[in-house]
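1st attempt posting a full record on here, be nice pls
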Amino acid sequence: MTLDAGWYNADLDSVTGSSVASLVWPNQQQATIDDQRRPDLIPLPSGGGATSLQDLVDELSEVLGRSVMIQDSRFHLIAASAQGDDIDELQMRTLLTRVTPRGACDVMEEAGVIRSRHPMSVDFSGYGAHDRFIVPIWADDEHLGTIWLIKTGLPSLREDDFRAIDATAIVASSLLQARLRGTARSARELVFRTLLAGDQSARHEALATAVRSHGITRGPETVVRAVTFGEDAPVIQRAAFCRALETSTRQAMTFIGELDSALLFVGRRHAQENIDALIRSEAERAGVPLKAVGISHLSENETDLLAVAARAVATAAVVEMLPDLGISARSDEVGPWLLLADVLASPERLQWYSPAAYALIHDVDPMRRRTVEVLLDAANHIREACDSLHIHRTTLYYRLENMPDVVKTALDDGMQRSALHLALKLATYWENAGYIR
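the predicted structure (as tokens):
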């Protein structure tokens, strides 16, 4: 766990709605800070822009329904959420002076807060204050700070709350380390964060630099993975997942941004099942519901990684719709499905594309559709189709002979047969998407 150890957020411009704000920062609405010069700002999946310690306490406060503070290793206040009815004298004095009073520090030192690597409850009743739940923030062997939550008089924390707290500590660790370094990002991080920039020339230059200096190669060895989660996945935990995945792969997978709600990572091609297992593990640990992983490789002639990322995102969308594909797929494995996914979702048009497919989809006997689809999947190889259907050759011939005329006509014509095959797959895709019921 980690925490930000600087003073950039000490303006506490989120302490609105409290009388404390008007006492200390009467002009806070006019105060602005140049984000480009703030070392505590790191791009994370937050719905746009960068994530800071202030973002973290605001997000966690909303999740927990209580005020949140982050302090550095010397118990100096760094960031605080808006204060609610749970504020006490200790909280008030800390907000006003930006440092925890000496007596409260003595209580924490006696409780072993600085030495602890685990969250702990601290009794401040002897100091005339509410009990606190204090979460230490570490980076390896370095104690960076703490997250403070009031306990007294508030509902008990739930399992989901603890996940959010743990995720906040993970992300805060990265932010605090960045502040301690005195620079927001390394040269490598800056290059990778620009791979999906809005400016095309900037993206081209970033990719050229990544190839020249940071281990990216043009060709199938470089892949982009798009990871998607359930819509209710909390921002903090998505951010924690990104950091944890980068760490666990030793930056073999580097987070480069977000596109259409998918988290994007670039890295070297590895055994797909191993990476899938790792992604599953980190998603479970972060408490976010993993939906799909789409994979696309960089071709030798591509100069823009955004196109690769878009293919990966589209592939993840296909995987979400087709459970039979498993948790992940490569774009080159699902090309026909990508084609079908781009077709306007208008089920009534299915009879435009293939009257034969329309007839089979609405046939009272589902075995007819399955028979034709298996035969087409087998490229009209009778033995292979019979093996898949577990029937005798004569049974297959009998079924085909008794198909509707519109289906038999389509099977006898090359173009209509191709349209029938694609239309049946399109129907499957639309059925999984809920467009056909």
